[in-house]
Amino acid sequence: MEPAEAEFLAEKELVTIVPSFSMDRVHLIGGDLGPFNPGLPVEVPVWLAISLKQRQKCRLIPPEWMDVGKLEEIRDQERKEDTFTPMPSPYYMELTKLLLNYASDNIPKADEIRTLVKDTWDTRMAKLRLSADSFVRQQEAHAKLDNLTLMEINTIGTFLTQALDHMYKLRANLQPAASNDSQDF
Amino acid sequence: MRYGHTEGHTDVCFDDSGSCIVTCGSDGDVRIWENLDDDDPKSINVGEKAYSCALKNGRLITAVSNNTVQIHTFPEGAPDGILTRFTMNANHVVFNSDGTKIAAGSSDFMVKVVEVADSSKQKTFRGHDAPVLSLSFDPMDIYLASASCDGSVRVWKVEEQTCVTNWLLLQKCNDVINAKSICRLAWQPGSGKLLAVPVDKVVKLYRRETWDNQVDLSDTSITQHSVTELKYSDKMKHEKNYSICGLAWHPKYEQIAYTDTEGNLGLWEDIGDGKKPNDKVASTVTKGYEDLFDGDDDDYLNGDMIEPQSSPNAGANEDHGDDDDLMPTSGHPTRAIIDDDDNSLDIGMIKANSNLLEKEEDDVDDLTGGFPALPTSSTQQPFYDGPRPTPRQKPFQSGSTPVHLMHRFMVWNSVGIIRCYNDEQDNAIDIEFHDTSIHHATHLPNSLNHTMADLSTEAILLACESTEELTSKLHCIHFSSWDANKEWTVDMPKDEDIEAICLGQGWAACATSALLVRVFTVGGVQKEIFCLPGPVVSMAGHGEQLIIIYHRGTGFGGDQCLGVQLMELGKKKKQVLHGDPLSLTKKSYLVWVGFSAEGTPCYVDSEGIVRMLNRGLGNTWIPVCNTREHCKGKSDHYWVVGIHENPQQLRCIPCKGARFPPTLPRPAVAVLSFTLPYCQVATEKGQMELVLEEHIMKLLELTQDEYYSYSSSVTVECFQFAVGQRLGKNHPFVLELPMQEQYWRSVVFHNYVDYLSKNGYELDENAQSQPVKEQQELLMKLFALSCKLERESRCVELADLMTQNVVNLAIKYASRSRRLNLAQRLSEMAVEKASELATALGDEEEEEDFRTHLNAGACVGCTQIFTYLFFLSYCIAVIASSSQGRVNPFKVSATKKDPVVPSANVLDTMSKYSKKLSSSRAVNKESPPVIKPLIPKPKSKQLLQASAASFFQVRTPSSSEKRVGEREEKAGNEPSGVQASAQDSTENKRPKTGFQMWLEENRANILTDNPGLNEAEVIKEGMSRFRLLSSEERIVWSEKAKGGTVNDVTEDKKRKRPTAAEDEVKKDEEQKSEDSNLSKKKKPLDQSTNVRLSSFAFKQS
């Protein structure tokens, strides 16, 4: 899966916005949205929030976890533990990127948040690589990783599975070759 | 308290007349304040730092950091020369009583006395071994007292420049800033007979000439003495250096101005019972002090005054005991300390201080050190011990945060937000609209220092108070105007300050300090002007309506005494509320007043109660919400920004630990729901719903999807119903009361429709009919419930609230559920209603339209309601039967035959039932195994009464004697008989088995057939006869036995039968009752099932 696809899925997450326009409930396939009252917070999917924000039709209220204190805690926890810790949102990376790109003026300390999320992400990616490494090294048949988000799985998933395939093929070829060796003599 | 100077040492004094306060501070400025609220004090720069100032006869003496003591003219502030110089800065300067001399004490250990007129005439006093802290001139001009960091207090004879006496009293230190106390000394004003020296926590009084310590004013006993006015302040140290360093008495009033090392200036008023200089003064003391402690500054009045932590009580006493309520005897009544961390603040004070509160509350705890002030007085004032008047709350704009904040909301309403920034870089106003289609956001410079603002969809209104040069101004930006000139400004007459402003549709209004309300058009034409009965508190406009809240009088004991005027400024121009008293929660004040989006006046008090005008009940106020109930913490509040009636929403901003929100980070609006304070069973709503959900699903054997797909309005009722069972609340109110509240809430929040349509507004038909439909539905549900509860009179009362069509429905329902009596009454009522309606229609054609609208709306709901009702009754039946099965397996056998046992897909059958009314009726009928015709019921009741009456007649002493005799006889014959009869008599009270009941019934027959049988034989005979009965009959009897209470009367009657049997006259009647038994054989069964049904439904019996 492409990162863009993961991002697309993340856009279905709900965020709170304060609209600056008035509109009745809109009926969409995915469910009803609104009603939109100026000044009154309302939950909408990220895609709509961004679209409205770009047209300056709303003010975004960042999700609760998008807060420097909370993210610091999460980052520290992530660094402290060897396994993956649960993330505040299954789309934390995508949401951070989307919201900070389009609505950074509504998010206090946007830069700090960006750094913190990136730190957390890096820590997790390092863990992921490390575990993939030990997985390959020890030639395990299967492994289980908890609390991975979709985006993280996708960064390593395609590569790892293909790599394992290749390795399997190589190994499979190696053994007959070894037995052939003796016959060459 | 307010900001006065930058941080550091400050000093304060009053001018001779007391008309202004003069302060100096470490910023080197002397400021002249008209009063505490003076936002633009006159500043005179006197040097780099000013240490002390004194003012007399138009001369202002300051001790400044270039080691000089300077003179300035007052109030002009022109420099008038240097009086004297030291090698270090002077710490304290004082005038003598006639203002001819000054004394200055310096950090170079010297004290100088200089004649003001001729600075060459100086006297120097040497003797202190450390910087001089403070000085005090003897009023008789003979002596001078000085205190120094070396710990000594010396008294000098001015003429001879000699030290008269010297006490080592104070703690030594090396510099003024390290001194624990700045030890302000004071002579008794007038005669100077006593010198007061504050030492630690006591004040030592020394007698003149003898210089002996006359008395110590200690914490606990302040004796009455002849000092009329004594002042001193004590420098306190605590971690934050938040301590009082300057203190001055007002020359006339009971006021103390003080400054602290943070540079703040404060004013205590109503220290005593003197004349009140301004209206925020509480006239009495105790209250006054509370005010001080609560409001004025939580920090050091609460903290410092009481602060000697070793003896807090004492500290408080000392303060209280200052001047006004001193009793001539020693020994003070101990007062409660006001140790107040909850914010029971006085509004005026809060407004001034709330930004400091949080900080201050922290401070209170770490305060240490002495106590600051002990003004004492012997003026014998009458001791008033009644209720204390409350300081009047100051005028405010709804939806604004306190004026003194640097960043504040000037208004936040449903249109937009106006913020005001007032810091070093910028003094500006930011206007932002919720709906950007109304107008774009605007940024205005705030050069006039506007403090009030209002915002509507057509204009922005701003107002400022008057300054020395400028009059108070009203400024309007009419952005929706079609011409190019959108702004106008109006100047108020001189000495008239705008106190509150508001905008309506097409008009603007302001209330001024001259008790006038001025109305303008939104384009700036002056319109009406009228007087207010009292100082305005707040006002608000909406459409043509204007609501004004003002002080009707002085409130007592913490209450405000407010009045409200509501008027319509449109074409009608009438007053709706004529200055009626405004009801507020006890000890609260008004925090918000305005209109709902639909135009109903509402207000909020400081206890968080939201009240709304109920136009449906003679313009009374009804509490519609308690925002404090929604708060998590004790100090949390909701800051109301708007009220909407359709949909019912209370928009407010949650404030954690504060009354109002900060401008940054930008607060988010929350929506609260309304709850009328009707009596309700207090159940956690969420918890209840969860329990219900689970329960209803189990009961109706629904899957989650099915359940959710089902109409919520129906399931909610079932929920409530089921929870009543589940939670064991055998109270029908579990279900009934919330519905009642819902009904009345709907009614109250629907009043606006009535009002608006009366005022010629076009309303969406749907918006009109929807609530009516909802109300009628609720009524019908309530009706159905009351029917089930067998409260027929309540049914009638409910039907009285219904519209014509729904009454017809109710009649149908009543007759279908076999309540003919009720149906009869209802139909009578319906006829009455119809005739009333007819006359009403004939009378008023205007109303006709509206009514028919309503009826039309109600009609739409009719069919829905009907299906609902049958569903409800079905549910009840199902719930009853299944819960029966659960609770009492014993009874299941009786009802097992019911075909009602729900099939797997209940909803299918249900919808069928609701479509086919007849079949749903069948469901109801099917539940009892025996169907009884309707008519016999009243008849048998009559019979019961008749026989009961005969029973009472029969119950004469003779018969009971007879019985006793009979028993004695039996007792003599055989003990087993006695046993049997004893057993019999207990069983008579409540027959337990079918046989016993049958026996009771048939004993007479047995006895007549076989006279002379004893009890045991009767039973034996009965046994054999009972066996002969068919099994069905036997079941009937056993059913009857279980029937319980219903049969009590009949039992009694039956018990009497043996005696009655002997009476020939009664025989006929017996025959009759025998007949009635036939019907009864069926009846109790039917009745009992009914009873059971309802009892299981509501656990009533």
From TrEMBL, chain A:
<comment type="similarity">
    <text>Belongs to the GINS2/PSF2 family.</text>
</comment>
<dbReference type="Pfam" id="PF25005">
    <property type="entry name" value="PSF2_N"/>
</dbReference>
<feature type="domain" description="GINS subunit">
    <location>
        <begin position="65"/>
        <end position="169"/>
    </location>
</feature>
<dbReference type="InterPro" id="IPR036224">
    <property type="entry name" value="GINS_bundle-like_dom_sf"/>
</dbReference>
<feature type="domain" description="DNA replication complex GINS protein PSF2 N-terminal">
    <location>
        <begin position="3"/>
        <end position="61"/>
    </location>
</feature>
<dbReference type="GO" id="GO:0000727">
    <property type="term" value="P:double-strand break repair via break-induced replication"/>
</dbReference>
<dbReference type="GO" id="GO:0071162">
    <property type="term" value="C:CMG complex"/>
</dbReference>
<comment type="subunit">
    <text>Component of the GINS complex.</text>
</comment>
<keyword id="KW-0539">Nucleus</keyword>
<dbReference type="InterPro" id="IPR021151">
    <property type="entry name" value="GINS_A"/>
</dbReference>
<dbReference type="InterPro" id="IPR056784">
    <property type="entry name" value="PSF2_N"/>
</dbReference>
<protein>
    <recommendedName>
        <fullName>DNA replication complex GINS protein PSF2</fullName>
    </recommendedName>
</protein>
<keyword id="KW-0235">DNA replication</keyword>
<dbReference type="GO" id="GO:0006260">
    <property type="term" value="P:DNA replication"/>
</dbReference>
<dbReference type="GO" id="GO:0000811">
    <property type="term" value="C:GINS complex"/>
</dbReference>
<comment type="function">
    <text>Required for correct functioning of the GINS complex, a complex that plays an essential role in the initiation of DNA replication, and progression of DNA replication forks. GINS complex is a core component of CDC45-MCM-GINS (CMG) helicase, the molecular machine that unwinds template DNA during replication, and around which the replisome is built.</text>
</comment>
<dbReference type="Pfam" id="PF05916">
    <property type="entry name" value="Sld5"/>
</dbReference>
<dbReference type="InterPro" id="IPR007257">
    <property type="entry name" value="GINS_Psf2"/>
</dbReference>
UniProtKB/TrEMBL annotation, chain B:
<keyword id="KW-0539">Nucleus</keyword>
<keyword id="KW-0597">Phosphoprotein</keyword>
<dbReference type="GO" id="GO:0006261">
    <property type="term" value="P:DNA-templated DNA replication"/>
</dbReference>
<keyword id="KW-1017">Isopeptide bond</keyword>
<dbReference type="InterPro" id="IPR001680">
    <property type="entry name" value="WD40_rpt"/>
</dbReference>
<dbReference type="GO" id="GO:0006281">
    <property type="term" value="P:DNA repair"/>
</dbReference>
<keyword id="KW-0853">WD repeat</keyword>
<dbReference type="InterPro" id="IPR048591">
    <property type="entry name" value="WDHD1/CFT4_hel"/>
</dbReference>
<dbReference type="Pfam" id="PF20946">
    <property type="entry name" value="Ctf4_C"/>
</dbReference>
<feature type="repeat" description="WD">
    <location>
        <begin position="2"/>
        <end position="34"/>
    </location>
</feature>
<dbReference type="InterPro" id="IPR022100">
    <property type="entry name" value="WDHD1/CFT4_beta-prop_2nd"/>
</dbReference>
<feature type="compositionally biased region" description="Polar residues">
    <location>
        <begin position="1086"/>
        <end position="1101"/>
    </location>
</feature>
<dbReference type="Pfam" id="PF12341">
    <property type="entry name" value="Mcl1_mid"/>
</dbReference>
<dbReference type="Pfam" id="PF24815">
    <property type="entry name" value="HMG_WDHD1"/>
</dbReference>
<feature type="DNA-binding region" description="HMG box">
    <location>
        <begin position="988"/>
        <end position="1042"/>
    </location>
</feature>
<feature type="compositionally biased region" description="Polar residues">
    <location>
        <begin position="976"/>
        <end position="985"/>
    </location>
</feature>
<feature type="region of interest" description="Disordered">
    <location>
        <begin position="917"/>
        <end position="936"/>
    </location>
</feature>
<keyword id="KW-0007">Acetylation</keyword>
<comment type="subunit">
    <text>Trimer. Interacts with the polymerase alpha catalytic subunit POLA1. Interacts with MCM10. Interacts with DNA2. Interacts with CDC45 and GINS2 subunit of GINS complex; these interactions associate WDHD1 with the CMG helicase complex.</text>
</comment>
<feature type="compositionally biased region" description="Basic and acidic residues">
    <location>
        <begin position="960"/>
        <end position="972"/>
    </location>
</feature>
<dbReference type="Pfam" id="PF24817">
    <property type="entry name" value="WD40_WDHD1_1st"/>
</dbReference>
<dbReference type="GO" id="GO:0003677">
    <property type="term" value="F:DNA binding"/>
</dbReference>
